[in-house]
Amino acid sequence: MTLSRRTLLTGLAAGALALSGLAAFHEPASAQTVIRFSNWVPPTHPVSTDVIGKWAENVKEATEGRVEIEVISPLGNPPSHIDLVQNGVADAGFIVHGYTPDRFKLTEGPELPFLADDSRSASIAYWKTYEKFFADAGEYDGVELMGLWVHGPAHFFTRDKEINTLDDMSNLKIRVGGGMAKYVAEDLGTVPFFAPSSQSYEVISKGVADGIMFPTESVYNFKIGPAIGQALEVPGGLYRSSQGIVMNKAKWDSLSPEDQEAIRGVSGLAMAELAAKMWDEQDAIGKEELIKGGTNFKTADGELLEEIKAKLSVEEDKWIAAGDGKVDRKAALDYLKEQIKAAN
């Protein structure tokens, strides 16, 4: 039997519509939301691969492919990323709070010296403290905070000068990133020198700066090690940098409640644990590799450690006294310390 041309075309059209509907039902990716993530960190750095990249995978899995994080080349310099995200130039981004210290003040509490010997306990405690004390203070107005954490304890690294006394630090030019690191550098009698992390090797190797205060991981992963001859580890750390991921508020609000809930499930505390795992593992790897490369490590103890603690004791009091009444900073810091102990 032969079908008429009209009947054949009608059948083909109906079949196409049926297949189209079936494909739309089985392929949610066709209606997926893409979140453009501006990333200024080198693509091979563990922050990119093990934190941002892993979180992107977790978001896609949690939303069953409806939401994807597209990591793109940076749309501005590191300090500008909070504004880039707020203004919608980027949908999301990684921020370091110390790069814009005038905007973030509460974040300096978890950055204080001597709080923890690792990233994990400090980061878990930080997120819980944020939820209990900081969330309503308005520091993230205009963006949606996905998560925050602190890197591992920062130590004192110099090109060639071994530090045996506090006087050995006097007037050394030390690269810092701003915020608590800058305050600590000044308290110790050094001269703070600001330069992007990516330029640290250059300024130290050429003698423009004498050294850096950084977590061990970053000295290694930013490839500063060949310029570093001496490392002074300070128990509890000289500071720890507060960092996080933010999303544009309008972009976040455009997501369905279902997808928002799914993303929250892999953000917040889960993100703090994810980032902290990376920092702690990389600190251990970094130290091993730096020693192999010839860096001499020693630990501050005895009189030197007591002198460092005495010099830096002012920072806790300063942070508490600088409160504007929105947050009980003393209670928040006490809670943070309790949670650090509980996480160990």
Automatic annotation (TrEMBL):
It holds the Pfam family DctP. Keywords: Signal. GO terms for biological process: transmembrane transport. The keyword Transcription regulation does not apply. Residues 1-31 form the signal peptide. It comes from the Bacteria. This is TRAP transporter substrate-binding protein. It comes from Microbaculum marinum.
